[in-house]
Write a structure and sequence with these properties.
The chain is mostly helical and 196 residues long. The chain is built from 9 helices and no strands.
């Protein structure tokens, strides 16, 4: 019985990811029910309501970002990091104009700063990305391929800010070329740090 409930939870979370990606937290409880197959009663008893379910969905999104999306310091060098930034605005990854894009970034905009649970997840997202990037930069510094213009700590913070700015550009764009040009500029900056 517990195994079936877990499968139902995973299926509901996967469906909720699609819904929250396209509509953000504004998705209605009725839409959540229709998309996930969960009832209002289950939303309330199993998750504590819509916000609790959203938090579980956001946790799953962050797990997925950590495993599949963020650059991996074990396999990524500076050139790979530059390519990764370009890929954020690649045609196959950029959301459609009417979609909302990165769920973690949108949570920053959808909730005020007083929501402690959202704040924890936003901090997780930012810390996770910064740690990944810092590890790549530390590795480049130790093997002599990083031009010493900024410390790895400072450079990783700059790249976190640039990623957030890129998400704003993606969300605010009129056409996809604008976002791609911004992503290329960030990639060019990273490539300029390669010591030759």
């Amino acid at each position: 019985m517990a195994r079936k409930r877990k499968a139902d939870h995973d299926t509901a979370i996967a469906a909720a990811l699609d819904l929250f990606w396209s509509q953000g937290y504004d998705a209605s409880t009725r839409e959540i029910e229709e998309k996930t197959g969960l009832t209002r009663f289950t939303l309330q008893t199993a998750y504590g309501g819509k916000e609790g379910f959203f938090l579980d969905t956001l946790d799953a999104y962050l797990d997925r970002a950590e495993q599949l999306h963020f650059p991996d310091p074990e396999t990524c060098d500076l050139a790979g990091l530059a390519d990764w930034f370009e890929s954020v605005a690649a045609p196959d990854r950029i959301p459609l104009i009417d979609q909302r894009g990165c769920l973690a970034f949108n949570s920053i905009a959808d909730f005020d700063r007083g929501n402690a649970e959202i704040n924890k997840r936003v901090q997780r997202y930012l810390r996770m990305f910064e740690e990944r990037v810092r590890a790549i930069l530390d590795q480049a510094a130790s093997n002599g391929t990083l031009t010493p213009t900024l410390s790895p700590n400072d450079a990783s913070r700059v790249l976190v800010d640039l990623l957030l700015g890129l998400h704003v550009t993606i969300k605010a764009r009129v056409d996809d070329d604008v976002a791609r040009q911004h992503a290329k500029s960030i990639a060019a900056l990273v490539r300029s740090w390669v010591h030759t």
